[in-house]
Design a protein that fits this description.
two-stranded antiparallel ribbon; single chain; mainly alpha
Length: 300
């Protein structure tokens, strides 16, 4: 019922589409691709989704939404759904890690789009029961659709941010799967050969001499499960604000601090974190605003 949710649901009503999957919280049935888009936007719209620190992304909103939509379309059982979600986390996060995500993001790329798009594709392809050759095509169509700009930090209403972090990734990953399931073929290995994915996104090497590492895509696959390295947000705010709010609440409780006692507050976080949350106009990714709210709420 927040503004981004209302706007997203208003858009959902204009889409139509074959009734394959449910838009959560409504009675609206639409195509699986549309449902993945809308549900993923809703999942990120209030900042309650999870975070995966090593890959600099929020995997759950796009991956779970895509698995829900494809699982509903294919009438999958619970075990298949959970396996697909786990696979999506493994593929999506490894993709980002292979790109050296901190440097990749400093250049303006959206790790929040790249990894989750591949995660959504992997999860939906598993539930669609595609064969190995078809999965190769899905990865290629997914690579063609990766993108996103870090301008999301200027989105005051959190609507475009919800699209960037959740909806776009879910839609694009699902589109890749549904195209291949319908018979589309493509390049069988987008990660190697002439002008491949890593050739296109090789900025890390140009920036600091560190090459992308495609071997990360399969390192530990099947034994190290990246879903186990996610964290669930305690506070509905941007990730770099989580620890400061925890610390501030503990100080308020331990020393019985009242807002009238505070003249100023100094918060120290990493440079990368500060770049995301320092004095932003979007309230729930603004460090100053959220700490002030915590001070007022925590001492009320």
């Amino acid at each position: 019922k927040l503004k981004p949710g209302r706007a997203t649901l208003s858009y959902a009503k204009t889409l139509g589409g074959k009734p394959e999957a449910l838009v959560v919280g409504t009675k609206l049935l639409t195509s699986s691709v549309n449902a993945a888009l809308i549900n993923a936007m809703l999942a990120h719209a209030d900042e309650t989704d999870d975070s995966h620190a090593p890959s600099w992304c929020h995997p759950g909103c796009a991956i779970v939404a895509s698995a829900m939509a494809m699982g509903e379309r294919e009438r999958s059982n619970g075990t298949a759904f959970l396996r697909a979600v786990t696979l999506g986390y493994d593929i999506g996060t490894r993709l980002n890690i292979s790109l050296n995500p901190v440097d990749f993001r400093k250049l303006g790329h959206m790790t929040h789009c790249f990894g989750p798009t591949f995660g959504a594709a992997a999860a939906s392809a598993a539930l669609a029961k595609l064969n190995p050759d078809q999965v190769r095509y899905v990865l290629s169509y997914t690579a063609q659709q990766t993108g996103g700009l870090s301008t999301y930090m200027r989105d005051l209403d959190h609507i475009e941010k919800a699209f960037d972090f959740g909806g776009m990734a879910a839609r694009n990953g699902m589109s890749a799967t549904t195209m291949v399931a319908a018979g589309c073929t493509g390049v069988e290995d987008v990660f190697s050969g002439e002008r491949n994915f890593y050739h296109a996104f090789d900025e890390s090497r140009r920036m600091n001499g560190i090459k992308p590492d495609p071997q990360v895509l399969i390192r530990g696959l099947g034994s190290n499960f990246e879903i186990m390295r996610t964290n669930i947000k305690r506070w509905t705010v941007g990730s770099p604000i989580q620890a400061p709010l925890d610390s501030l609440l503990e100080l308020i409780r331990q020393y019985d601090i009242k807002e009238a006692d505070v003249e100023k507050m100094i918060v120290r976080v990493s440079t990368t974190g500060a770049n995301t949350v320092n004095n932003r106009e979007m309230p729930d990714i603004c460090m100053q605003y959220m700490c002030a709210v915590m001070l007022l709420d925590g001492t009320a």
